[in-house]
Design brief:
Elements lengths: L1 E5 L2 E3 L4 E3 L1 E5 L2 E6 L12 E4 L4 E4 L1 E3 L7 E2 L2 E2 L4 H10 L2 E8 L7 H12 L6 E7 L7 H11 L3 E5 L11 H13 L3 E5 L3 H10 L10 H4 L2 H17 L4 E6 L2 H12 L4 E5 L1 H5 L22 H13 L4 E2 L8 H4 L15 H14 L5 H15 L17 E11 L18 E11 L2 E5 L2 E2 L19
Parallel strand pairs: 1-6, 2-7, 8-11, 11-12, 12-13, 13-14, 14-15, 15-16, 16-17
Antiparallel strand pairs: 1-4, 2-3, 4-5, 7-18, 9-10, 18-19, 19-20, 20-21
The structure holds zinc ion.
Length: 461
């Protein structure tokens, strides 16, 4: 189909301009101030976007849809995740594939793609978790990159869940990734410090409110410093996922100052919520790792976004139903994670743009261009460039919404933002030229999402 989006304000990282955008098939055909009648194809759907923003489709660079872990599976399966993402203006997610025990690294990615294909209704890319290496793992990582997975993830914690990677493996792995231009992303919390705190706090069991005392900001600081220094000594870039604390940001800044090419993402949870929720009603709903921190941490992270020390926002969307969440009251075993993809755009628009911390162009940087460049998807994704995928979001900046447990699309059945008022609303989402959300209706198709082979991450180019 051909679609003309008229009279909207097109927003990219660089500028906001009043222009018309023509879509032909799956691609953005042309962008002009106005099109002459003879430039337009005969069969044409015209959409009037007066007073609306026209954004590139957003990217959630950190999701866990249909994650099988710790003996259970998350509430939002691939299709559920696609639907709620589309309502939030997200047309691409970067999900994770596990390192399957006893298998070659790349087999995890193949397995994950096989699961997602036929289910996803939006496009996806992958980060690959690596939990161990052998001397010949370089070959396996090369295969992974050839498949189009150009970022890996390591965990500095979670020994019991099987995610932790031994320190002697880490430097081998770093070198292999550096030599292949693969981005290393890190879940940074120092395991020894966590173990030590866990042992110290033995009195009354481990209710949720103890989580920030077990998994401290200091543990985040230490892990970022240790692994960041290692990356620096190997002259390679490194990326920290879900930065949660002011102390963590201190580490990023210290390393940057020392010349380390360190990049970081934070999530809407660490920007908006605090550990007080862990002392309230059904605190399990707010358990995630790293844990929620204090108001001053929220503020520091907004500051990090504004000044550019944090380059992007992603959600770590990882959902469990209340039934799953309430199975335990021990912060070490409550299933960790909350919903987030659907709310990301409105939250950052409301508390970043509307509050005047940064312009709307910066929103596009944080949620679209920056993740696309960082993870080798640019300009096909994250841009409004002619000739690239017509992933488009039409957004009404004046609409108001109150997030409630009932009006969300997650299968978790609740939102950590229940009762929060936000500005702006996605009116329409297009994936490669097809309307997948219009108003309150989802019109995407299960299985129409595609795996996106990622190129070399931008910082290696
Ligand atoms: Zn995660």
């Amino acid at each position: 189909m051909n679609i003309l989006i008229k009279n909207g304000t097109l927003v990219t990282e660089k500028e906001q301009v009043r222009k018309d955008l023509l879509i032909q098939g799956e691609k953005i055909k042309a962008i002009e101030e106005t099109f002459a009648q003879e430039e337009l194809p005969p069969e044409l759907k015209v959409i009037d976007a007066s007073g609306k923003y026209v954004f590139p489709g957003f990217i959630d660079a950190h999701t866990h849809y249909q994650l099988v872990s710790r003996g259970t599976v998350t509430a939002d399966k691939f299709f559920d995740g696609s639907v709620l993402a589309a309502f939030g203006g997200v047309t691409t997610v970067i999900d994770f594939s596990d390192h399957l025990p006893g298998k070659k690294i790349v087999e995890g990615a193949h397995f994950r793609n096989d699961e997602a294909a036929g289910e996803m209704a939006i496009d996806w890319a992958l980060h690959q978790v690596v939990t161990s290496v052998q001397d010949d793992s370089s070959m396996e990582l090369k295969e992974l990159k050839d498949l189009g997975v150009s970022a890996i993830k390591i965990f500095t914690t979670y020994k019991s869940a099987g995610y932790f990677i031994e320190k002697e493996d880490v430097s081998k792995l770093f070198k292999m990734c550096r030599d292949l231009d693969i981005m290393v992303t890190i879940h940074a919390e120092d395991d020894d410090l966590i173990e030590q705190k866990t042992a110290e706090l033995t009195s009354d069991g481990y209710p949720p409110k103890l989580l920030p005392l077990v998994r401290t900001a200091e543990a985040e600081y230490k892990a970022i410093m240790d692994y960041g220094k290692l990356a620096g000594s190997l002259n390679m870039p490194v990326y920290i996922v879900h930065l949660s604390s002011s102390r963590g940001l201190d580490a990023v800044r210290e390393l940057k100052k020392a010349g380390v090419r360190i990049y970081a993402e934070t999530t809407p949870t660490y920007l908006h919520l605090t550990d007080e929720l862990l002392s309230g009603e059904m605190p399990q709903r707010f358990v995630m790792t790293p844990p929620l921190r204090k108001k001053q941490d929220n503020k520091a992270l907004w500051d990090g976004l504004t000044c550019g020390d944090i380059q992007l926002v992603a959600t770590d969307h990882c959902t469990f139903t209340l039934e799953q969440k309430l199975l335990s009251n021990d912060c070490r075993t409550i299933y960790p994670g909350v919903p987030g993809t659907e709310e990301m755009l409105q939250l950052i628009f409301t508390n970043g743009v509307k509050k005047g911390l940064f312009p709307v162009t910066k929103l596009v940087s944080l949620l679209a261009e920056s993740p696309a460049r960082m993870f080798g998807l640019y300009p096909e994704k994250g841009s409004l460039a002619e000739g690239t995928d017509a992933d488009i979001v039409i957004f009404d900046p004046d609409a108001e919404t109150i997030f409630t447990n009932e009006n969300r699309h997650t299968k978790a059945g609740y939102t950590p933002y229940n009762g929060m008022k936000v500005f702006g609303k996605v009116e329409m989402t297009l994936l490669r030229g097809r309307i997948i959300v219009e108003g309150d209706a989802f019109s995407g198709t299960r299985g129409k999402g595609r795996f996106l082979p990622a190129g070399t991450p931008g910082i290696y180019r």
